[in-house]
Specification:
This protein is an alpha/beta fold. It folds into four domains: 5-139, Rossmann fold (3-Layer(aba) Sandwich), CATH 3.40.50; 145-195, no CATH class; 200-289 and 305-321; 326-420, 3-Layer(aba) Sandwich (Trna Endonuclease, Chain: A, domain 1), CATH 3.40.1350. The protein has helices at 5-13, 31-44, 68-79, 98-108, 125-130, 145-151, 177-187, 200-220, 234-246, 254-263, 270-282, 311-317, 325-339, 376-387, 416-420; strands at residues 20-24, 52-56, 86-90, 112-117, 135-139, 155-156, 166-168, 174-176, 286-289, 291-293, 298-299, 305-308, 343-349, 352-360, 363-372, 395-401, 407-408, 411-415. Strands 11-10-13-14-15-16-18-17 form an eight-stranded mixed β-sheet, sandwiched between helices. Helix 3 (68-79) links the parallel strand 2 (52-56) and strand 3 (86-90). Helix 7 crosses helix 12. It comes from Coriobacterium glomerans (strain ATCC 49209 / DSM 20642 / JCM 10262 / PW2). InterPro entries: AAA_14 (IPR041682), DUF4143 (IPR025420), P-loop_NTPase (IPR027417). Residues 20-149 form the AAA domain. This is ATPase.
Amino acid sequence: MILRRKYLDQLIDFQDQDLIKVVTGVRRCGKSTLLDMMREHLASQGVARERLLSFKMESMEFDGISSYRDLHQIVREHASGVSHPYLFFDELQEIAGWERVINSLRIDMDCDIYITGSNAYLLSSELSTLLSGRYVEVEMLPLTFAEYLDFRGALWSASDSDQADLLEMADGSIATLGRMLEQYRRFGGLPFLALRKPELSAHRAYCKSLYDTVMVRDILQRDRRRDRRHLTSPELLERVCAFLANNVGNECSMNRIATALSAEGSSVSNQTVDAYAAALTEAYLFYPVRRYDIRGRELLKTGAKRYIVDTGIRSYLEGYRNADSGRVLENMIFLQLAFDGYEVTVGKLRGGEVDFVATKADERIYMQVCMDISSAATMERELRPLRAIRDAYPKLVITMGGPHPTDVDGIRIVDAQDFLLHRV
């Protein structure tokens, strides 16, 4: 079991505090394994195994649970006579009314509670009210590039310093850092797939299974929600998903999507498209990024972009076409910023836009992302918006190929692999 240190440390930080630890994220990003990691950590600290109680809702062991009352009874039975049990619940959204059980256990028992879920509805406003804010969320993403290298067993080669980007793989082969980055860009960072050299057929089969599970179980078969349009068309859901995947990094208004679908023969309203797009967001397949007026210093209500949770899932949805490499790179940079804890917006200027404005506490970074800036015209296009910003916060251009200087007028130009590995 390869530790994902950032997420495990977050759980450890809140261990034994009167807070429900809720781990969220897209299916198969590693949430269940993270709970296993926490169990092993507790055991290593001397906690007796009988105090570590797991309830995996998708296991046949709990297949007979039909209501939250059944769940409450089973938990109480398992925890009977156990001093300060640690309760681990996996994919709790499968049980309607589960939040009542969790709230009751938190109040009535001396216990420490950990939960996973694959739908953002898990933390709806109703749940927040019921739990009185007594929870902390740990939102997981698929692997970063650095984590991907760990999962692939890559070690830095002991070769000469002029070949410092050579990697020794677990099977004894040698690979360049650039080759590994290209594999990561195409096949993404789902943990199970990253444990071995990528094969297209295996990747396609795994992503199809994941995609079908998310679309059917996490979206189409979910309970009818209060004040929300019920989703009834699998075909429309798939078409909206395909459109968003094809347009990562592009402005995607509901009107634009509805117009595109209508041109293909599906007459749908903006409100219907919005309901389906929101469901895909709630299932953690896509992340909306709002526009930010840099001069006015305010968030804008229109012009949001969306990025997919994993570039390998996009490859699957796009039929593994090696196209739109620049926007895929942009997607990768967004995911790294999100992992690093930045709030990310798209910067709006009167004469253009900046790909990302990344903020965290008092820190702010302006970024342009471009696949290749070797031509003078492309270099000038990427630098122009950054030059128009007058404050003193750092400005970066991130690129994946082509010769380039490292600094132009105080604007740093860095290779994507160095940015993703925190080598800048």
